[in-house]
Amino acid sequence: MVILKEKYLRPKEIENDMEHGDQLDDRMQEIFTLLKYAPKDITELLDVGMGQGQIVKYFASQGVRCTGTRLEMESYGINAEEWKRNGIDIVECPAEKMPFESDRFDCIVASHVIEHLSNTGLALQEFRRCLKR
């Protein structure tokens, strides 16, 4: 029996106002307000389901080593090499099975991601595994 991976299709339900590139919509402004309370000693951050990348762009500009994850980057027009030149690694993987070593990240952000996961419990276990103790 052969099982073919179904191609990820970008959900049509995503509203255009959620994606403004470098401009922040109300949702992203609220996230950045919360991130003001993040510890100042973060050296390595993971943004699961990074969207347009505003969070990793901000933290990379502050000297934090950043990694973002996405599903099917080609469906979003993402050029991982271009991001890498700006100090941001982008990895194509599901939140439920990430290819990172355990205890790697100081901070994991998953903004508006959990409700889209097929197995929330497994994803949260992965977050915990990848987060430094």
Topology:
Elements: H1 26-35, E1 44-47, H2 54-61, E2 65-70, H3 80-85, E3 88-92, E4 107-109, H4 120-130
Parallel strand pairs: 1-2, 1-4, 2-3
What report would you give on this structure?
The protein is an alpha/beta fold and 133 residues long. Helix content is 26%, strand content 14%. Strand 1, helix 2 and strand 2 form a beta-alpha-beta unit. The relative contact order is 0.17. The N terminus is likely disordered.
Keywords:
single chain; 133 residues; alpha/beta; 4 helices; 4 strands; disordered N terminus
Contiguous low-pLDDT stretches (5 residues minimum) are 1-20
Structural class: alpha/beta
Helical content stands at: 25-40%
Report the strand count: 4
Quaternary organization: single chain
Instruction: Report the average pLDDT across residues.
Output: 80
